[in-house]
Amino acid sequence: MVLKTELCRFSGAKIYPGRGIRFVRADSQVFLFANSKCKRYFHNRLKPSKLTWTAMYRKQHKKDIAAEAVKKRRRATKKPYSRSIVGATLEVIQKRRTEKAEVRDAAREAALREIKERIKKTKDEKKAKKAEGLSMLIMLWYECFYHEENFPCSIVVCFKPARFADYNG
Q: pLDDT digit string (tens) for 120-166?
């Protein structure tokens, strides 16, 4: 037959069925004490870590080390191994590792140069497009200015003449 034992909340001693004192606090928390001595010390707010006979004191001061000696398990170390990554086989990775720094730097510089050229090209295209649109606006503005009967006046109001101040006509 197995007996269900509980632990004293103060001393840490085992309490067998039919023994001990149960105390229920106002916040519905249940405390189980081994005897009236533990109950009295608990209510007088004594700390179990300061009394030499409690389990907490013995644990803090390493008194029961012989009984609790547990062999430390050593974690098996994994041996490093190489494997391919998505998009690159093992041979490609090895080749990359063994190639010299100068080759790597040259490839990086070439790639950067190509990217910069591409960016510059797109910027130039944008500038050309903007200039073309600007010239069309200027033409419209001048036409509107000289031939007011063909265009409604609201278009003239939309344009900002200060933007076209550097236009030489």
A: 999 999 888 888 777 777 777 666 666 655 555 444 444 445 555 55
Quick: pLDDT tens for 84-96: 777 788 888 888 8
- CA–CA distance from 54 to each of 61, 76, 118, 167 (Å)? 11, 38, 78, 96
Q: Which residues pair with 31 in a beta bridge?
A: 23
One-letter amino acid of 8? C
- Interacting residues of 162 by C-beta distance below 8 A, sequence separation 6+: none
CA distance 155 to 137: 10
Whole-prediction pTM: 0.40
What CATH code would you report for 6-65? 2.30.170.20
Domain ranges within the chain, ordered by starting residue: 6-65, 90-116+129-164
